[in-house]
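Minutes, project check-in
Item: structure for the 455-residue chain
Input as provided by the requester:
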Amino acid sequence: MRLFNFLILIVTFQLAFTLEARVKYNKININYESSNYEAGAKYCYSRIGNKNLIASFFIPVPIDYHHQERGVSQLFVWLNKPFDPLKKTLVFIDGGPGNTSHDMRFQVDDWNVIFFDQRGNSCSRPENESLFLDNKFYSSKNTANDIEMIRRFFNVNKISIYAVSYGTVPAQIYAHLYPKHLQSVVLEGTIFQGGELLISPKFKLSLLNSFFQSLDKKTQQRIVELSGHSNSFVEWFAAVGNFMMYLDDSFNKFEQFLNLMLWDNEGAFALISTFKYNLDFIEPDFGASEVVLGMLGCKELGMNLAGLSPLAYFEKNPSKNSQVWKLKQSRFNYQQQKYCKKLGFNSDSFEEVYSAIKYPSHIPTFYIQGEYDGATVLDQALKHFFYVSYNQKQLLIAKKGGHQPFLSTFTNEAYSSSKFKVKMLILKKFLNAEMISENNVSDLNKNSDLQYYLY
């Protein structure tokens, strides 16, 4: 058990950094206004504590851009260094939806790097819970307009944007709406559209099936056996796979993980249970927001569409020998049950599933994409590259890369490391709307765990 406990520690550590694990929770009743709802500057600074932000601001933004008579809400914005009007300015857009950057020390030399809590999240919670739980308060277009308010606040003519995961959605909308004020866009882990391509992508299922078939028969048999055990759940293999595909070199790590955990019944069942979905709606106290995730996911990303699920279960392949097992996509949309119904969305009700093709741009756009990214699959970046960007553009793909192969380096590696330096050089070129060369890619490959190529 000692080896297995060590494995649990390592995997938990990796996933915490990769997924920005949410560790502090307060239950809120989402059906009516509760007395323990907090917002505003007092709430914010009581959570930030002694982090000593160098420069932080509350910027008023319209509650409703179409009906500005409804008043304003406060958007929390900060920098880790004092703002310098002589430097170029970068706005970083978090993913999720519902993630924040309060623990991020990401910097780009000679640039102002602006972070912000997207509306409804952490320090950008509105003043009352009624507005916090009003789905009209939330939209990716509102976030894009909020970014424009940030630009105006700092009085800069042009910004560049670095967006990751869900953050690529408001980034693209901003590029479409405000091209005159944008120098370049860098998208890492790109969303081209919501719905099936985001929640139940065939590409991810195919990768998981190929990985399963590559395992020896004894291991396959054990995986299927655990899937049918009363102490397990049928989708466990796909659930663990979904987490692993956030990591670089995911399937090698997945195989090592399986080799160490499969043959210890007590440890296997204990670990499998931690990956099972639950339907409890618990809002974190700070640093992330399930409400923001649910509002945007149900309105725009397809979480409220019946039959869509990120999970899959094993069934015998009917077209082959009965001993051949294959993953089949689940049709149980637990996200609809967990988020959408509890936030007041009717079944199959949503404004419109997001599609980037409705927001074309002529801004220089640069893509960084993991080949095995399970959160925003490679096909999303390819479609975005071909059908959305109509100017200077490059797509840099990390072979066997996970969800954020560059950002993970910027947040976890030492500034002095060669890996950090070569990736930062490429990011700076992208932010300055400069194409990189094959020599840049060659240098990157010499100093990286993964191999990269330009599409």
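Outcome recorded: The longest strand covers residues 55-62.
No further action items on this chain.
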